[in-house]
Each structure stands twice: as C-alpha cells, then as structure tokens.
Amino acid sequence: MIEVNLSDTVYLACRARLFSTLLLLVYASMAQANTLGITSAVMNADGTAVLAVPSTVSGAAPAGLEWTIVYSPNQISSMVITPGPATAGASKTLSCVSSSGGATCIVAGLNRNPIGSGVVAYLNTTVVQGQTSASIQISNLYATDPDGNGSIVTSAGGGQITSYGLLPVTCSPTHLTPGGVSNCTVSLTQAAPAGGATVTLASNNTSVTVPASITLAAGAATANFSATALTTFTGNQSATVTATLGSSSQTVVIGSAGGTPVFIQEKDNQVTSGLSASTAFSSSAAAGNLIAVFVIWDNTSNASISDTLGNTYTAAVAPTRWNSTRSIQTFYAINRAGGSDTVTATFGSAISSFGIIYAHEYSGVRTTSPIDVTAAAAGLSRSLDSGSALTTNNTDLLFAGGVSANVVTAAGSGYTARSTFQGNITEDQIVLTTGSYNATATQSTGAWATQMVAFKGALDTSLPTVPIGLSVTGVSTSTVSLSWVASTDPDDASNQLSYALYRNGSLLGVTTPGVTSFNDSGLAAAVTYTYTISASDPAGNASTQSAGISATTNSLAPVLVTGVACNPGNVISGASATCVITLSRIVSADTLILLTSSSVLLSTPASIKVSAGNQIGSAILTAGIVPKNIQAVVSAALGTSLQSTTVLLWPTPTLSS
C-alpha cells in the first residue's frame, strides 16, 4: 500500500515493467482492445471516497498496464492506492515510487501472468475539508503483452467525487411588503454527516435580512430560515439570497410587493339629461396611475370617455345591457401626466333619465397592456355575479361596477366598496395568486348588471419560460462551451433575460442580459460534467432549471518521447556525455523517463525526471574502461514511446614508442 500526499497537482504514472524486458520492447501492435477508466463515488461523511480503476479486456490479456492520473490537491488532500481484485493475486504486483510532485507506479503480472478484466486498483481518497466535489482524470494509457509488445489503451474517462451539496432554495412568499417575512428552506442532496453541516447565508440587498448561517443537524436534509423585509424594501426592489455549502451554492430572489395596486381616490356624478356627465377628482391625479371609469346610462347608444389631461381611454369590456334598454360599461386609461383632472362620459344619444359616471384612480397597475381578464353578466336575482374569469397574473386589481334597478346593499366577499352613489356600487379587491375569480354583491330586488375587470399589478411576478435547446458547442481538455434558445417572458423582452448556469447542481455563473451562450473553463480533462440553466427577468423571477446536458472534456494527449541527443557523441574511457530527452509536450506534473544503454560500459541512471512545466530532461552518462571501440545505443522510453541515439565509446588513447 502506497500513500501519496502531495502539494502540487499529482501525477501518477503507473507503468507495467516486466523487469528489464520493457527496456527492450519491440513496439508491435497487440491483438487486444483494452479500456481503462475511473469510476465516480459519493464522498463519505468523513470526507473520504473510494474510486475504482476498472480494466476491460477484449482479446489477449495484458501482462502489464500503464496510466496517468491527475487531480488537484486543492480538492484532494491524500490518496492511498491499493490493489484491486484483478491485481491482488500472488502472481501480480502493484507498487509506487514517489518523486517530487508525483509518483511512478507499476502494475504487472509476474512470470508472464496476464491481467484480466476487472478492477486493477482502488483510489482511497480524502477530500480537502470544505470541498464538496473533486475530479480525477486518467490518460497516457498503455498495455504490454508477456513478450513486451505494447499498445495504447482506450480511456473510459475520469472519475468524479461528489458529496452532499445544496438543492435549490425555496422561499414563500417570493414577494414581500415592508416588514414582511418569507419562510425559506435549504435542502441538501443527502443527509448531513456526523457533526452536521453549516450553510452560510447572504443577501445582496440590505433591506432584506437573513441569518449569517444555518446549521443542519446530523442526519437532517432540510432546515428553515426567515428572510425579513425592512421598511426600506419598497418600490420594485429585489434581493438575491445566496446559500453556500463548500463549493455548492444556490440562490433565490425575493421581490418587493411595492407594485401592488393601491386605491387613491374616487369621484362620481349623475346627470338626468344631455349628452355627457362629468366628475372632477378632488386631488391631482399622478402620472402613470390607472384611471378606471364605470358608466351607467339609460339607453343603448355608445359611450366614450375623455378628460382634461388629454388621456386616451379604452373600453375594457363591451357594454352590458340590462332591463332591456339600459347599459353599463367600464373604461380605463393610464394617466400620461399629473395634475387636476375632470373626467367626462359622452353618450351617443341624449340622456332622458340618468347618466352616471364613477371615476377611480389607482397606483401600482401595469402601464402597458394592463388588462388581464374580464367578466360581465346581467340578471334578476338578489345576488349580482359577474361570472368567473381565470387570471394569468399573480397580482391583480379586481375592479367591478354594478347597477341595480333598486339598491345594491353590500359588496361581495373579499371586496371593498369604493362608491354606493345612487344605490349602485363600485368595488375592488387585490389578489396575489392566479385563479378563478368573480365579482359579487347583493341587492334588494329587481334587474341588475355587473362587470369585473382584472388589471395587472405593476409588480412583475411572471416567470420566464424554461430555457430549451441547451447544447454543447465545443469542448477541449479544460473547457466546455454551451448555447441555448432564448426564453420568453410575458412582461420582458428576450434581451432583458439573464441565465444562471449550474454545473453538477452548483451555481456556476450568471450571464449578462440577452446572452445565450457560456464558456466554462478551468476544467479537468477526461471528466464528464452535467449542466442546467434557468432564466430570470429584471424583477428577479426565475424559471425552473432546464433539462440537463452532459459534456466530457477531452483527454490529455499522451506524452511521447520525441528525441534523444547526447553530447559529446564520442566518449573515451572514464569520460562523460550529457544526454537530453525531449518530450512531445510540456508536462503538468513530474514525469519519469526510463533510460537504458545497450552496453554495460556506458553507465546510465535508471530514469530521468522531467519536471512539471517542462518539456525536456537531461542525464549524465559515464563510460567505464573501454577496451576497444564500441557503439552504445542509448534509449529513452515512456510507455510505448521510444527514441534512441548512438554514443561511440573509445579506449583511452596511448602513446606509441
């Protein structure tokens, strides 16, 4: 059992070395197809995880295997490598020799004993405290048969260590008035370990406060906390609450309920003749507010509304006829300028008995496309009922007007009466969830008619659609590029929507509004990652996460020996030469190159170390006592990669008499 506890990125080169035969390999193709990979694992409560290195053999079983493992010590603090069932027998060995920043390991079948399919090694890891995931990649894979012939092994991919992380945070309600409290829940992907788990909390808006942290007891998977809105949480503010556990984080957005519609004032008037009826507000009407007008008149001609501020009024619903020859209708306008205002109803035919106007001002109503749904009805029963309408907006102002041939005696359940002038009624109600709503009231007796108009609150509570079309547009050994189709939102343009990216369930980043692509960098090679995204609008409303898509980073290219050069090329007895070995690329960790000489008269070290961040290494070779001119072949080997050069050995010159 060898324990590796390194301070830099760890390189484990596990090389099958069938004694000295490997140094004399004839690199012919083997009649076999091997794959070697690393399994994934879930971290235990104490931070440990065991990953297997399984080998799959199709054809002749190898007598030796070689591979490279890379991981970050920022994620994994130590690793203990133990034999697996495929290498645990008496006829097989697994050993490691440490070097600075790495280790060279050997797994070999002794006495030409083959290594069949199965787990060749276990990686017993300890994850750095505070980390909730880690990745280990595998590359530089080779196999050798009992005769020393080598072949490249196919990588089955690296492994991923995951642990308890955070699921999306939920809060209810998601919009608060000043002083309001939202009940929030953090959830773990699995029960907290012994000693519990502490989740830190933060709000990016000082007007919404949350605890600094919350602790989940051992065995618990959820915990609750409160988010409290201060008196300064007004208007259309929002607060992003972030929960963090190690490298796992989740966010939830809490919006202010400052956009909830509010009744400001009402004025009414009746005429008994003529073509118009007018009423003036007692106070100046504010720009941007809703002016809702309910009109009753005694004929079936058309009606229209105007005012002294020059607003354009729109019929919210068609006229409702009642008692055969009489009419009601609701109009609205978004006030374009503040100031004193007189509202006038103009009728197509002269009034002979009554023409009544009710004008109302409300704040907090959507300024564009403010109508959600409408309903209207007429009848003869004691109860006025507009009939039901299914709202689509979470926050609506239900405005209703009703007329009675006699007297309306009470507003409907949940409604507040704003006027009962001339025995009729206008009333309203604020609803904070979508659903089926109607406007009701009671009357003494006789014919009646009523209309209900649901106006959308200015508070945007509509969710963007879930992003679709998430796809991988490119991968490298350390990056994954993603793109997707823009979401839509009933209240915002697509270029106003941002997207939160999640990798393996943890928040990765948020795009700028309108961007539908993302490049994830700094990844480990040969590791599979899963991505999801969610869309959010300027008010902080976020969609649910999209379906996940997986991407596997490319494996690192095998490191090959590309050159050997010795200087001088002619060495006399007792002299030395410096040999330089060149690799195909810069290595990310210390790499050992096997070095041999075909002549025992030229002494060579067993290996040369190429340090991390370099592409070349060197060694000094010394000649012994050379009796005659000899050619020594110097060979450098890394896996199945072999390069050689020739050094001429000469005896020490002697003077002739």
Helix residue percentage: under 10%
Whole-number average pLDDT? 85
Q: Detail the poorly predicted runs.
A: 1-32
Compute the separation of the termini in Å. 64 Å
User: How many β-strand stretches?
Assistant: 58
How big is the Rg?
Answer: 40 Å
The shape is: rod-shaped
Number of helices: 0
Largest beta-sheet details: 8 strands, mixed
Determine the strand fraction and express it as a percent band: over 45%
Class based on secondary structure composition and strand pairing: mainly beta
Describe, in short, the structure shown:
By secondary structure, this protein is mainly β. Helices cover 0% and strands 54% of the residues.
Features of the shown structure:
mainly beta; disordered N terminus; six-stranded mixed sheet; 657 residues; rod-shaped
Describe the structure.
- With 657 residues, the protein is an all-beta fold.
- It has no helices and 58 strands.
- Strands 2, 4, 6, 8, 9, 11, 12 and 14 form an eight-stranded mixed sheet that branches. A six-stranded mixed sheet has the order 1-7-10-5-3-13, with no helix packed on it.
- A hairpin with a 2-residue loop joins β22 and β23.
- The protein is rod-shaped.
- The two termini are 64 Å apart.
